[in-house]
Amino acid sequence: MPSKPLLTDTDFRVSVPVQVRMSDLDPFVHVNNGNQCHYFDLGRSFYLEKVLQNQVDWKTIDLVLAHIELDFAAPVEFHDQIVCETKIVEIGNKSLKMVQQLRDTKTNTVKTVCRSVLSGFDRQTHQSIPIQEKYKRLIREFEGIGC
């Protein structure tokens, strides 16, 4: 069971359906834990494109995934109808804290919770940089996060 409380589905303003593929399954016929990271990547990209109102080019965007932790609450199985729900819960000077969950829409069961940190990153110098004010403003407006 996850060590931290789960958010309810009403806390998430961004949700993207995930197609479970046969190749995602492990010998236990569950979605492999590593493959679930791909689902969260999809949710992260979908979230940023929705909030920033632009297609994300991961080769040039000045954000990078700096930390990720997963709590596996229940196995994701082949016939589950999964959505990846995503939100940013905290905005710092150089980082954003994101929470995501994989939820089965048939049973409303939260299968996996992901907590991650995105950091501002200069791809030329490979140095940490502040998060763009434009990003902060758009996220605050979208999520209703106070200053």
Report the radius of gyration as a whole number of Å. 16 Å
CATH fold description:
Thiol Ester Dehydrase, Chain A
Distance between the termini: 33 Å
Average pLDDT, all residues: 92
- Strand tally is 6
Q: What is the N-to-C succession of helices and strands?
A: EHEEEEEH
By DSSP (H or I, 4+ residues per run), the number of helices equals 2
Decide which structural class fits the backbone: alpha+beta
Q: How much strand? A: 25-35%
CATH secondary-structure class: Alpha Beta
Shape: globular
The CATH architecture comes to: Roll
User: How is the main sheet built?
Assistant: 6 strands, antiparallel
Report on the architecture of this protein:
There is one protein chain. With 147 residues, this protein is an alpha+beta fold. Strands 1, 2, 3, 4, 5 and 6 form a 6-stranded antiparallel β-sheet that branches. It is globular and about 45 Å long. Helix content is 21%, strand content 35%. It has a single domain, classed as Thiol Ester Dehydrase, Chain A (Roll). It has helices spanning 33-52, 133-143; strands at 14-18, 63-72, 82-91, 95-104, 109-122, 127-128.
Write the layout of secondary structure elements.
Elements lengths: L13 E5 L14 H20 L10 E10 L9 E10 L3 E10 L4 E14 L4 E2 L4 H11 L4
Antiparallel strand pairs: 1-3, 2-5, 3-4, 4-5, 5-6
